[in-house]
Give the backbone structure.
Amino acid sequence: MNLPQGPKLPAWWLRMQFTADPLRFLDQMNLRYGDIFTIMSESTPLIFVGNPQGMKQVFTNTTEIIAAGELNAESAPLVGKNGLLLLDGIRHRSRRKLLMSPLHGNKIRAYGQQICDVTEKVMNQLPLGKSFLAYPTMQKITLEVILNTLFGLHTGDRYEQLKHLLNNLMNYARSPFVEIPLSFPFLQQDLGRWSPWGYFRYLWRQFDQLIYAEISDRRQQPNPNANDVLSELIFARNETGELLTNEEIRDLFPSLLFGGRDASATAITWALYWLHREPQIREKLRQEINNLGESPNPMSIVELPYLNAVCNEILRIYPTQFVTFPRIVESATNLMGYNLSPGAIIIGCIYLTHQNPELYPQPQQFRPDRFLEKQYSPYEFMPFGGGTRRCPGEALAMFEMKLVLAKIISRYQLSLTHTQREKPQPQGANYPPASKLKMVLCNIQQHQPTQEAVSC
């Protein structure tokens, strides 16, 4: 086997470095070995690929390079045994298709006004002239959007219970009490509610009780006018033509929950950071939104070209996935001139692709215009991953990001509380600003402003 170059240090030491600061580690590897390199994990080579041509080979060669669900087995406590990440073949294609239907096209258009209303409700709760943390504020918005779009819940006891529970569950899942046992399964000991892993399992059991109760109610009293993901899955049929079981429905939600709250909140928070660090870009975007007039249709907003460029540039700098889900070499293959044997693991490094100066000149700079000047291929720009494991909620995530950002930029005057450059901090699979981004709400426009906004 002819492998790309890589460090010769012990695997445990490299893993510690990667865990401590993943982006710095990838930058160092890229600087020394280029955009394809090998890390040895005992006798298994892990090949990191950040080259666009290599990415294309990985995503299109689906006979020799397999996106096997077993490679994601360590995430089973998070996503369930029937989650998309663990499924393969026809089961994976069938379940993915079931999810894609309510998360794309005309289906998500119905969510537009709900997203705008939720954004306004949460932002109006902020006190004028006082600082707030942008990241948890955006999490409040994205969590409410989840409850509306995924579960069709807007008010009531179950809405309040799920809102409280999901906030606790997802926050706890990002803590060392869960992240460490996920990496070291022998620590996954349920010793009761007051033990670290036991409390995690207790929260999941509470979620199961609520979701199963909701499924039971809707099976008994179906609503033909319902427009949410849960309602569609309850009466959807699997690859054998049978209705999905309650457990199969439940297991399709965890990955959507974590991505829907944390990944979306991270992207919107970074957008607020860059737009308030670069006021000329913010004003250009505000003018584009204001040109639509008062109370524009959500579909008119999401079609704005500069807003699209701004969102793409945010996702280029800090994509929702920094690496792809792993692939395994099923039969001998050639990847960019390297002959790989069966058993080798390939990990696409989206972060390095997005930081490639040949593709993106001055990659550390926030330049939305680059997405107006050039069209990038799916192997050059892939903020939601690629291939068969690409995020099924991509369309809804972009839809939400554009509407939330447009509502905030057009109506609320915010200011950063400090001028230091923000650094990303790993939190699960996401990298929000380390400070959670402290901002101040300066003013609220009652109508679409025609003049330039006044800073704090």
